[in-house]
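Hello,

Our lab assistant flagged a job as stuck in the queue for most of the afternoon. It eventually completed. Since we weren't sure the result was trustworthy after the delay, we are filing this so someone can double-check. Below is the sequence as submitted and the structure that was eventually returned. Let us know if re-running is recommended.
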Amino acid sequence: MTIRVRQQPRNHRRTASRTGVSLITLALAVTGCGASSSPGATAESSRSAAASHGVQEPGTTSAPAGRTSADAAPASKPAVPSKPAATCTDRYLSGMTTAQRAGQLVMGGISAAHPDQTQLRVLRDNHVGSVMLTGRSTAGTAATRKAVDGFRGQADRVNGRQVGLLVSTDQEGGRVQVLNGPGFSAMPSGLTQGSWSTATLRARAAGWAEELKSAGVNLNLAPVADVVPASLGARNIPIGSFQREYGHTPATVTSHTGAFAAGFAQSGVLTTYKHFPGLGQVIGNTDTTAGVVDSVTTADSAGLAPFRAGIKAGAPFVMISSATYTKIDPKHLAAFSPTVVDHLLRGQLGFKGVVISDDLGNAVAVRSFTPAQRAVNFVAAGGDMILTVQPSTVPAMTRALQARMGQDASFRAKVDNSVRRILDAKRAAGLLDCG
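-- returned structure --
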């Protein structure tokens, strides 16, 4: 997330035990849901992957040992392939109402220190499927876990089975660390982390992830993959002024975001590469400033290298910034740009996981749009999960999504695809009953 500059840092809004193993593969290994595809993968791609590894999918047939597939059925009566069994994700999705599908597309902010019951009720009543712990808390892991357990039970049920909540926070380090107190380490800034060896960072990150997991958090809105040039440094308000970057070159940021994400994967906590396509070349902070523009970054810029590497390794989440990139799409904020989300991130970079927005609830960058417009524009551009730190915006957002779903079949298909990707991520985090 981008952050505001205050005397006291404000509320922030903001998975590979072996080298060479993809992050998502490790995340999936902890789910207990069997051979499953990575977040965003289709049932067909899952079956293809299974076949390539000699894994037989449910509902398919194979010839006995010593016989070819051609021998498996009499020539006079060709075998008819059976219909593949529905995946765990499919079973959940098919049982959801329109309101539940819309709610899965929202992540609502709740104070980490003092969860507000009225705000939690708003999230529950609108079927919100993910929560972000915001602000600053010194309560520690045990107290945070108690608070999380207190609202985890409000998650929706589908066909008698709960759709578990993704619980996230901003736990980057330095001045961007929401959760503190007994059981939580004091994490150094990204710039300090970037001065460590990748082996050290990976090991430390695995420990930080264990702390989050013990507190009931299963998704971290980190690492920061923005490359801030040394020549810009602290003049880059959202990242550089807080030393959130891992370094000033694409190589350093790439290696260290990868190490951070790998450590978290080792401990079974999902991560989020942010803020695509990068906030390293801007001056203004989209949380506090309208009209933040990047006039440098292109679709082929070296600054995209950390995102490319993370996606290749299996990043489960990527966060989109709310700046405008004049050399990519000068007409839209990145969060509302099909060129940035569908064409560049999904098409050119091949990302198949969950696309989450930067804050669309309280950020000044989006205040010229109503909450309803923000939600619909983001999903129409190809986004999946709408992050709002302001629970009061949720009802208008979910109503608008449902209304557009009822009017536009192609939009409803986009929503269904987004829900699938989110459910796949939840499966990877062990939040779905796939038995």
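-- support follow-up --
The delay was a queue issue, not a problem with the job. The result is valid. The mean pLDDT is 86. Residues 359 and 388 are 5 Å apart (CA to CA).
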